[in-house]
Specification:
The protein is an alpha/beta fold. The protein has 14 helices and 8 strands. It folds into 2 domains: 48 residues; 259 residues, 2-enoyl-CoA Hydratase, Chain A, domain 1 (Alpha-Beta Complex). The N and C termini lie far apart (46 Å).
Length: 319
């Protein structure tokens, strides 16, 4: 059974009862198949009703679910002949940002993204997906490599934001993020970015300045976390729910605002309830996007990408 979020407690109770009944049925001769089927139908109906009207804050919780598929899950299912590339050739290898070469359904690509980790040990190793300057400088190195060999770029974004520690600031965090955004905008190959969980602040857009931007249905993408926004506006993180609504951070909001290009549906109950299905669906979307751009001139792709983000700025100023 998956771990449940706070708003899923009624669903958790039903699924707990179903698990108990199955245990009883397996342990003896009791025939309770009809009762199990009735409860399963009730649980599915409740799950459908709950996920049909999620608030922005609830979507944020789903986007942060610890069992959602992460970078290495996508690489394992979608990328053949994966060769990891490490280090910024200057300071260190940042484990929060991973990248390498491989083939996505036969298409040679450079894949790059955030890795949060899947348990306590790996989350600490990957710093919960919060990259330091050396992570973004590694990204720049790999983006320049892709540009040199005319490789399409795929980025998978899942970070609460860039690491805010003193040592990161001392090593030039803001400059490193800016260089990574610049490198994304300079590549003369197709660039496709997917927000697979959290897309937080500059730490996200550093890898998401792409020709085609995809969001999973229950992912979020914003200039600041709801808690950070609430702490600034209300001096308390307790107003995070209000901040989440105001930030317009859901996939639906951002599609209507023209910030992203495509939404990929998740299985009922979120990506963590159907990892393989989610990964396959996102792979389909990325493949379609790459194929639509394969025949386009590199200079045209670069100009289209730059114009896309300049237009976002113009719309913001007009608003």
């Amino acid at each position: 059974m998956p771990s449940f979020l706070d708003f899923e407690k009624p669903i958790a109770e039903l699924e707990g009862k179903i698990a108990e009944l199955r245990h009883l049925a397996n342990a003896g001769d009791m025939n309770i198949a009809e009762e199990i089927a009735r409860l399963q139908a009730k649980a599915e109906k409740l799950l459908r009703q709950t996920y049909g009207k999620l608030s922005a804050w609830q979507k944020t919780q789903v986007a942060r679910h610890q069992e959602r598929p992460h970078f290495f899950d996508y690489v394992g299912q979608l990328i053949d002949d994966y060769v990891p590339l490490a280090g910024d050739r200057s300071f260190a290898d940042d484990k929060a940002i991973q990248g390498g070469l491989g083939r996505l359904r036969g298409i040679p690509v450079l894949i790059l993204g955030h890795e949060k980790g899947s348990d306590t040990a790996t989350r600490v190793r990957h710093n919960f997906g919060m990259a330091k300057p050396e992570g973004y400088r590694k990204a720049v190195r790999l983006l320049e490599l892709a540009d040199r060999f005319k490789l399409p770029v795929v980025t998978l974004v899942d970070t609460p934001g860039a690491y805010p520690g003193v040592e990161a600031e001392a090593r030039g965090q803001a400059e490193a993020i800016a260089r990574s955004i610049e490198a994304c905008l300079k590549v003369k190959s197709p660039v496709v970015s997917a927000i697979i969980g959290e897309g937080g602040s500059g730490g996200a857009i550093a890898l998401a300045a792409a020709n085609h931007i995809i969001m999973l249905e229950h992912s979020v993408y914003s200039v600041i976390s709801p808690e950070g926004c609430a702490s600034i506006l209300w001096r308390s993180a307790e107003n995070a729910q209000d901040a989440a609504e105001a930030l317009k951070l859901t996939a639906g909001d951002l599609k209507s605002l023209g910030v992203i290009d495509e939404i990929v549906s998740e299985p009922l109950g979120g990506a963590h309830r159907g990892k393989e299905q989610t990964i396959a669906a996102l792979g389909d979307a990325i493949e379609r996007a790459l194929q639509s751009m394969q025949a386009q001139d590199g200079t045209v792709l670069r100009e289209q990408r730059r114009d896309k983000f300049l237009e976002m700025g113009r719309r913001g100023l007009a608003a």
